[in-house]
Amino acid sequence: MGKGKVTVIGSYAAALFFKSETLPAVGETVRAEEFIESRGGKGSNQALTVSMLGCTCQFIACLGSDKYGQDALEMYRQYGVNTDMVKIDNEVPTGIGAILIDEDGRNSISNFLGANLRLVKKDIDTVQDYIKGSTIVGFQLESDLEMVDYGIRKVHSMGISTLLDPAPAARLSTDLYPYIDYIKPNEVEATFLTDIEVTGVEDAKKAGVWFIEHGAGTAIITLGDKGAVLVTPEISRHFPSPNIKALDTTGAGDIFSGGFMAALSQGKNIEESVVFANHAAALSTRRLGVVESIPNLKEVEDFLRKSSLQS
């Protein structure tokens, strides 16, 4: 993999992780055994992943002028993510999230979007020339939804592929789907968007068909440790997840999206890109945190080779 150019438009949030034996029930307090202050946000996680996997990545977002925003800019410098078009807002705090994790790696998350909502439709017009030359542009739903809708339509009309990771789940305009080249929900989001209860592979295939029938170019439904299902007008295929013991699944979906965009931008076909993304996401679950868990290109390629030898 070389120097494909990917743009991610989306969210950043500081991340506070608390790991305990169990997740608290309503009204219950549990003692945390571990605490980590990290950095997250779906758009940010995807941009960092793209860069870690050997591609040129530019990030378009809005941060507060506070400590968390400054920490984010320093992180992007360290990871080689271009931030020329990151806005700084002096009135609203940077986004922040609290993540509770149990001993099995399951999580509950509460997010404050903050400055993420200050990235608006007019900003898409401002960065239009900046986006040119991208192989693919990634979006999520942790930002102003009108901006996301407008941005997807604008980018697609420029002849650039679009990927939507529809999280957190929100209703989309039905006429938006033809502008989405790749949609990548997990089983919960696919259930919400299609009203098809997705609990396994066959349900995911049905949901994928629903997205295609509504105009999306390609649907990829991720199923956690069950892997991912790819549906296009020509293909309906399940890709099992590599066998690995998960410590923390937080951010794995973002790393899948980043891995998929990175692979696709380097000329891999759709099926190869799903396999690559599956392995990148699986590797990320071995470590606590999100940014700390993003694998580098060598790790993913070594894991792919090992998996191919075992299959």
Query: What value does the Rg take, in angstroms?
Result: 18 Å
Uncertain runs are none
Q: Superfamily at the CATH H level?
A: Ribokinase
Average pLDDT score: 94
β-strand amount: 15-25%
* Number of domain units: 1
CATH fold topology: UDP-N-acetylmuramoyl-L-alanine:D-glutamate ligase
Task: Give me the side-by-side strand order of the main sheet.
Answer: 4-1-9-10-11-12-13-14
CATH class: Alpha Beta
What does this molecule look like?
The chain has 311 residues and is an alpha/beta fold. It has a single domain (5-20, 32-303), classed as 3-Layer(aba) Sandwich (UDP-N-acetylmuramoyl-L-alanine:D-glutamate ligase). The chain contains ten helices and 14 strands. It has helices spanning 42-52, 67-79, 121-126, 128-131, 145-157, 187-194, 201-213, 252-265, 270-284, 297-310, and strands spanning 5-9, 13-19, 34-40, 56-60, 62-64, 87-89, 96-101, 107-112, 136-140, 161-165, 182-183, 218-222, 228-231, 236-239. The strands form three sheets. The chain has an eight-stranded mixed sheet, with helices on both faces. Helix 5 links the parallel strand 9 and strand 10. The two termini are 23 Å apart. The model has no long low-confidence stretch (mean pLDDT 94).
